[in-house]
Amino acid sequence: MSLTFSLRPNDERGHRELGWLRTFHTFTFATYLAHLKEHEGYGPVRVINEDRVSSGKGFGTHSHSEFEIFSYVVSGELEHHDSMGNTEVLKRGDIQMTSAGTGITHSEMAHGPTEVHFLQIWALPHTAGLTPQYFTRNFSDEEKKNQWVRIVAPVGDEDVLETHGGTGPTPIHTKLTLYATLVDRGQKLRQSLSGSKGFVQVVQRTGYNVGKAVGSVVRIGGKGGEELELREGDSAYIAVNDRGATFELENVGESTAEPVLSATVLFHYEIWPDLDLGDIPEFDGARENAQGYEVWKVKGSAVEQKEDR
Question: Which of 37, 50, 162, 227 gives a 20 to 30 Å CA spacing to 18?
């Protein structure tokens, strides 16, 4: 089969409730699955968190290095401040990407009277020691309606501009392309996957739910291959067995669905042998920030990427 799938159910994601924060962890993060490797990432992606932050609360000033970190706002408003001098309030449809490189500090807070709901995604860059940068883009609901829109793409790809704002996909310094859509009932979308891996996740649009997935329903598949149904909060690993295979997604439910699809070229991350990295080989540990929320840091000088062809 050209594409094969492995279900990642909503009720198996990690989740934490801290009063001001309700969050899901698709992959290993903080204390979630810290002793396991089964879900520590996929390709260059290391974190997909679906966060809901209460009004006036959030992640106070903290540091990052050697990660490409971007936020996809689902609802509400997210206020961003960073050590590069960027101050911005992001709303639905906005994406901000911080290329942390040699190191930055930033804060992310819920702005306005309602909670903010957003996806936070971290990926490892193709090169350590990059100069920190910050980018924002906006993709309207109308633009995403019943079609895949390329919202993140590698620097150097067609229509990708390394400018703070502007049009086209948000630039990222790794082999990762991210697509988003709002797909209506009965609509089927197709997307060619040129890399070796993909990952699809359905956003929880109908509310916070730690149990079995409910809400909108999509069916994913490939020509002549297996099929899998996903509901809100569900996700699936995609193995691309034939480069260029067509991924199909159809809304078979009653309501509009908001899937996010990543397509990657697989990289191996090789770690220098004299490092003591503990249970998770890509990371040198975690530290607790002021909100009691752990922040993972990559050992940038020890990461080398080699494309798996």
Answer: 37
The span from the CA of 230 to the CA of 228, in Å, is 7
Three-state secondary-structure class, residue 10: helix
Within 13 Å and on the Cβ side, how many CA atoms surround 250?
10
For residue 278, pLDDT over 70 is answered with no
What end-to-end distance do the CA atoms of the chain give, in Å? Answer: 19
54: which 2 tokens?
């209460």
Nearest residue to 23 (alpha-carbon basis) of 235, 285, 233: 233
Average pLDDT over residues 227-236: 97
Whole-number pLDDT of residue 225: 80
Which of 202, 178, 191 shows the shortest CA–CA distance to 253?
Answer: 202
Q: Counting beta carbons within 10 angstroms of the beta carbon of residue 87, is it exposed (0 to 12), middle (13 to 18) or buried (19 or more)? A: exposed
* Cβ atoms 71, 119 nearer than 8 A: yes
Mean pLDDT of the region 218-228? 91
Collapsing DSSP to helix, strand or coil, 68 comes out as strand
